[in-house]
Amino acid sequence: MTDLSNLKLFATQPHPCSYLEGEEATTLFIDPNAPVDQDLYSQLSQIGFRRSGAHLYRPHCAQCSACVSCRIPVEHFRPNRKQRRCWRRNEDLTLAMVERIDADEHYELYAHYINTRHRDGDMYPPSRAQYEAFLSRAWGVTQYLEVRNAEDRLLAVAVCDRLDDGLSAVYTFFDSREDRRSLGVFGILAQVEQAKALGLRYVYLGYWIKQCRKMDYKTQYRPLEMLVNRRWVRVN
Description:
Structural class: alpha+beta
Number of domains: 2
Largest sheet: 8 strands, mixed
């Protein structure tokens, strides 16, 4: 186990918050030159860090503590009625773990997703370089869950990192023309099933922010564990 006290940390200057209008954010980054492996990544996830590309970070805002890390304890998870319907609605789809997502069909699906769902976000406009940097394989732990229909058309990709105790749901992108399928929900449910199959305890969902409507979906997965005052607290 790595001694976390020896890690160098770097903080950004305050910058406009991406989630809360009018707020300033400060982000804490692990030294980009630190030798990261699955063990270190897992320890950092347990204390609230997330991955973006090749960087591990955590909010470190002076006046705000709205970002709360959350994870699903998969053995105790009980899907609600909408989630059960979503799973049944997509029983015709196939799931497969793949090693790479560098084909044109993967990038084109990502670009479509950003252009139709996130034109107001930091990743718009999409570019191939940004896509590769953001969703590249990191430290040998990254897996890609492909979702395809009966005609073998790619409908969604869930990018997830395997930790010692769970899967970290890094990002999911999908065909927004398939609204009826609720592919974002399906992607999380599929990762819960994958974690169970691997004997892992959690699916890490990143940060929940009470005042941010875009984050509301995370509280639909119950029970949910939240990192509060450095302790994981279960919310039923």
